[in-house]
Amino acid sequence: MRRVVSLWLPFWPTDRLRRHRLAALSPDAPLVTRTHDGRRLVIAGACAAARKLGLSPGMPLANAQAMVPGLTVVDATPEEDAAALDRLAAWCLRVTPMTAPDPPDGVWLDTTGCAHLHGGEPTMLSALLEQLDEQGYVARAALADTPGTAHAVARFSGASSTVVNPGAQADALAMLPVSALRLDPEHGITLRRLGLDLIGQLVTAPRGPLARRFGPALLRRLDQALGRVPEPIQPVLPPEVIQVRRSFVEPIGTAESIVSVIALLVAEACELLEQRGDGARRLDLLFERVDGTVQAVRIGTARPSRDARHLARLLDERVEEVDPGLGIEAMRLVLPLVEPLALTQHGGGLLPGEQEEADLSVLVDRLTNRLGPGKVYRMQMLPSDVPERAQRPVPMHEPLPPAPPATGWPRPIRLLERPEPVDALALMPDHPPQCFTWRRVRHRITRADGPERITGEWWRRDGELAAVRDYWIVENEAGRRFWLFRQGDGVDPATGSLGWFLHGFF
């Protein structure tokens, strides 16, 4: 099922000026852009602060300056705004391979088949809006089955982020004004005079009189929003983005034919990469179906690659996810993210007996492609003595910073997600446990080493000011080694409950 995001930037011209030309201007200072309307100057765009003061686009500039003394006024640059909107649409390629500008202040994103790569639709929208906010742009977004519904909900629902459930276009549009359908302004005025203020009323109205009165444009917009009539989005890619395409005389639909076309597309793309001295980091394979919809498959690599065999194999493993429908009439391979890739020598080192360093990127790519993003990672050591805070997972392709100095005590190869309480028998306060019971199994301890005292990190929270853990490495009769700790120093109750816990295994 098709899913489309409408991204709306209500203050696009002024937000762009604040970011690039007026960075020193206070965020609370009202800012407007001006343009000519015949012989008079009018406001073309107004920031949020200006609109709170009653200023709006179309207002005579002289009236605005009289209402707000010291108003910051800048000439409107619609050509620059449009060019920047194109660049923003290209920036959104990190979310989906199908994006297009929606002038003058929006962007389309066809996210069909892409949401699971970003943690689901709500998470994807939240992350997109958060990244735009960090760059200084106010934005709203809505996701729905049709561009018309997404466009209307993003601009008229009042919510910053909205996900319309599949098939729920009519319910989402029912209470929105008819102007949300992107109608001619005169049509909107006439509809309101007829008492048709809401889209829900328009849906239930007789279609014949509406068609005679307003022509086909009104019903076409309504049917597009409800999904009765398709509304294609033509993606726009920057000229520097590598893309190759194959169209077919007869639609294809079998896995074998798709795999053969993938090989051709990847080989052609790798030739272009080699000419530029680049390697692919992200590949989007688009399937243009006979019914006008497009399916997308995205893969990524741990490091730049132009190995045609490896890249084709990654895409081949995703073919089973493709629904050809009535047939695929064209396939397109887009490389939205590439990085420089120098030539390397394979087949061993330069010196006799020198071995080539193993390249794990191929294995990482295949595991990530099969298991999903975020499932393949390595651990980064952090400067903390508390075991559960001493490391964090990072993607395999991120370089690791230098590790902090080691404590001198060995660490277990496996930590429990949370320390689990055990029943232990030990002499207080400095002796190791003689035995302990964990999950109804009693372990008699034959050897022990410790204690290693770890105190709480008082700068994090007050509850750790006096916290103490005494860790012991213990071995049972069967030779299994455990990492136990006692909560507290064994003397002062303020340092802990004196309970014993199992934290890991050697």
Instruction: Give the CATH topology of the largest domain.
Output: Alpha-Beta Plaits
Strand order of the largest sheet: 15-16-17-18-19-20
Major sheet size, sense and barrel closure: 6 strands, antiparallel, barrel
Q: Number of helical runs?
A: 14
CATH architecture descriptor of the largest domain? 2-Layer Sandwich
Alpha-beta classification? alpha+beta
Strand content: 25-35%
Give helix % range.
25-40%
**What is the CATH class of the largest domain?**
Alpha Beta
Distance between the termini: 49 Å
InterPro entries: DNA/RNA_pol_sf, DNA_pol_Y-fam_little_finger, Rev_trsase/Diguanyl_cyclase, SulA_CellDiv_inhibitor, UmuC
EC number: 2.7.7.7
Domain UmuC: 28-151
Keywords: DNA damage
Outline the structure in words.
With 506 residues, the protein is an alpha+beta fold. It folds into 3 domains: 1-238, Reverse transcriptase/Diguanylate cyclase domain (Alpha-Beta Plaits); 244-340, 2-Layer Sandwich (Dna Ligase, domain 1); 414-505, no CATH class. Helix content is 28%, strand content 31%. It has helices at 12-20, 48-52, 61-67, 78-91, 121-134, 147-156, 169-173, 185-193, 199-204, 207-214, 216-226, 255-276, 308-316, 361-371, and strands spanning 4-8, 31-37, 40-46, 72-75, 98-102, 106-110, 140-144, 161-163, 242-252, 278-289, 294-305, 328-340, 377-381, 391-395, 414-426, 433-438, 441-455, 468-476, 481-487, 500-505. α6 (147-156) packs across α11 (216-226) and α10 packs across α11. The radius of gyration is 31 Å and the shape is globular. The mean pLDDT is 88.
